[in-house]
Amino acid sequence: MPRGKKLRVGVLFGGRSGEHEVSLRSALTVISALNPARYEVVPIGIARDGRWYLRNDAIEQLRKATPQLRSLSRGGDAVALPPYPGHQTLIPIESAYGSAKRRSKTALSGKLDVIFPVLHGTYGEDGTVQGLLDLTGIPYVGSGVLGSAIGMDKDVQKCLLRDANIPVVRYCSITRVELEDAPKLASRQAAELGYPVFVKPNALGSSIGIARVAKPAQLKAAIDDAFQYDQKVLIEESCAGREFECAVLGNERPEASVPGEVLVKGGHDFYSYESKYVDPEGSETRIPADIPAKLATRIREISVAAFKVLSLRGMARVDFLASNDLKQLYVNEVNTIPGFTAISMYPKMWAASGIPLEKLVERLIDLAIADHRTRSKLSYTYVPRA
Fold first, then answer.
1. Region 262-280: what's the mean pLDDT?
2. How far apart are CA 37 and CA 275, in angstroms?
3. For the chain, what is the radius of gyration of the CA atoms?
């Protein structure tokens, strides 16, 4: 790329998941952190109905939506964006099929150098958008299709971690069909794990649909609620104690930040959606975590190991559960597109590790371009040996 030319960065935000509003907050942070001397930002919003929008007034709209956790409005230029494989473009449908007089003059005319997906949850963090972007040939920040899918599927994720001798809490999974065929299965599984247990959707984030179940009478309601969000539900053993998080950055040679600790306050039972985003007094973070140096090193080592085992790249946040005496430590889950809101741990932990937000987004973009350059050298057709 010629010296002095700005990189065109498409920031993809919103989406169809239950984490739509959180995505808007994260996008505002990312867009604001992109140095205008280096980057030309192309904001691409996805409404709750799945339609994609170009927003020339993206900053203004995001600032209006985020304080009250409102959805992306439908104003702006609505476009359908089919990929143009290998040409680094997302084509407005008017440009592709309309008459010459009606062809769009939007900001998407021309190539995008990189996409920064800030989509949390379903249809954004689960490999679906990543597959679309692979078809376009546009480099993008974060994990690919496989790593993203594994990162969202907690059941598969925990199986892979367990097979790699990375500790996870005891749990079981159950599908709606299994529960229909064996109505008492969930009750037996929960009793075997021992109350209290946590019930959660298999593939969702931001603590949506999660419930702490203290007694058998509460189990059915918790499972019914979780089934609103996924066809598979997890029942997990409780680990009463402390919660830690660690940020990972890199591709083939990932590195981990200093760990942070989340303290749940305000009468909340656990680090729920409400304690994270709704109640300003619902939680507190400590970065770095006030823990022995040996434990901090172990958390960082496990975080990097989990990142590699799950085929991740670019970025991830690894969440941990620990007993009060710190003798037991478990990976709770990984997040392949961690939050970038004002309260989010991922950028805060890197800031405490010496990488401020502006430098962090630069590193992530550089990693995306480097990974794309490496993968573009691979051949996908048979080449006979000479």
1. 58
2. 37
3. 21
**CA of residue 367 relative to chain centroid, distance:** 17
In tens, the pLDDT along 148-163 reads 999 999 999 999 999 9
Read off the amino acid at residue 174: I
CA–CA distance, 209 with 201 (Å, rounded to integer): 6
Q: Is pLDDT at 330 greater than 50 in this prediction? A: yes
Q: Does domain 171-237 have CATH number 3.30.1490.20?
A: yes
Q: What distances in angstroms separate CA 120 from CA 164, 189, 229, 344, one per listed residue? A: 26, 30, 14, 13
**Residue found by looking up tokens 């990312």 in the block:** 30
Cβ–Cβ < 8 Å for 152, 229? no
Going 370 to 140 to 128 to 117, the CA torsion angle's sign is: positive
Burial zone of 370 (CB within 10 Å; 0-12 exposed, 13-18 middle, 19+ buried): middle
Task: Count the Cβ atoms, other than its own, within 10 Å of residue 386.
Answer: 3
Which tens digit of pLDDT belongs to each residue from 23-75? 988 999 999 999 999 999 988 888 888 878 775 666 666 766 655 555 555 45
pLDDT at 97: 39
* Domain over 151-167+240-374 is classified CATH 3.30.470.20: yes
User: Coil, strand, or helix at residue 22?
Assistant: helix
For tokens 């691979």, what's the residue?
378
**Residue 360 dihedral angles phi and psi, to the nearest 5°:** -65, -45
Task: Name the token pair of 366.
Answer: 């550089």
In 3-state terms, what secondary structure has residue 317?
strand
Q: Please give the sequence-ordered ranges of beta strands (E in DSSP) within the chain, or none if there are none.
A: 7-14, 39-46, 52-54, 77-79, 83-84, 89-90, 114-118, 171-175, 197-201, 211-213, 232-237, 241-250, 255-256, 260-264, 283-286, 314-323, 329-335
Q: Which of 244-253, 261-270, 329-338 has the lowest mean pLDDT?
A: 261-270
> 43 — phi, psi (to 5°)?
-75, 125
Pair of tokens at residue 155: 């059941």
Q: Give the domain 7-140 fold.
A: Rossmann fold (3.40.50)
Domain regions of the chain by residue span: 7-140, 151-167+240-374, 171-237
- Give per-residue burial for 6-45: e unless 16+ CB within 10 Å, then b: ebbbbbbbbbbbbbbbbbbbbbbbbbebbeeeebebbbbb
